[in-house]
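Need the bound structure for zinc ion, inputs here:
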Amino acid sequence: MYSIKNSFVFVVTCLMLFMSLTANAKQAEHITKVADNVYAYGNPAAGYTSMFIVTDEGVVVLEPVNSTHSKLMFEAIRSVTDQPIKYLLHSHNHWDHSGGGQVFRDQGASILAHEEAVAWMRANPHPDMALPNQSWSGKRKDIHLGGTTIELHYLGMNHGLGMTVFRLPKEKIVFIADIVTPDRLLFTIVPDFNIKQWVRSLEEIEAMDFTTAVFTHGKVIGSKKDVAANREFIQDLRGAIHAEFKKGTNPFIIPNIIKLPKYESWAMYDEWLTMNAWRILLDDHMGPFPWRAED
Ligand SMILES: [Zn+2]
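Answer from helper R.:
Posting the output first, comments after.
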């Protein structure tokens, strides 16, 4: 029998459905379709991009960032598919990338990171970081879901711990966090990067088979050229510092006088060049750091 209570419930249900559809549609604006089943998610103004892969056996999400980002990304995912979230994959340990996992755990996702990243996360808790329930070790792991393969590549030391580069072999797509940011100088004081191993890692990425790269920072979609350009910047900066060493310039004034006109159009050129130069100079002055025996 029809009642006022039933009609009230009906109206509220419709309103909630409408609100959730509107929220999903709003977040859909921040999706970039990379391939048929692959989407980048991120509001460039917020500075972080994630990626999700939709299969007919579920969804795989890369890079939760934080709870706010993950909640909005989940709305974006729901604007594309109703498939369950099967996996959340972490790129590396740092707090500014590894928060927000609980949003996907609540959806039943399994959370996975390289064992090095998991060990750090366990030792360095953060209120927004959910500990992964699975870790992987070694150089490579493949995840197969609904006909899609996602390769997880650990390239050794470069930035942070357990840094994972993801490759989709069929779609020829890679997802890269922090170790390549197109058209921008190195991040501030270049924190937690081993410069020598970073350059080696970039060369290994350049040798991979892919045509499209999705980056956590900077422009959402690029190519192998962006990876090469980041490597060349590091090498050009080191070259400019060495040229000053050769001229006998006092090492401690070099960061303040160094110029790299080729990169003037890159973001943060004026703001960060001196900081970048200090970091590379100290690496050459003190020797590579951070360092571990296996590298
Ligand atoms: Zn990082």
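Comments: The chain is about 40% helix and 20% strand. The first strand starts at residue 31 and ends at 35.
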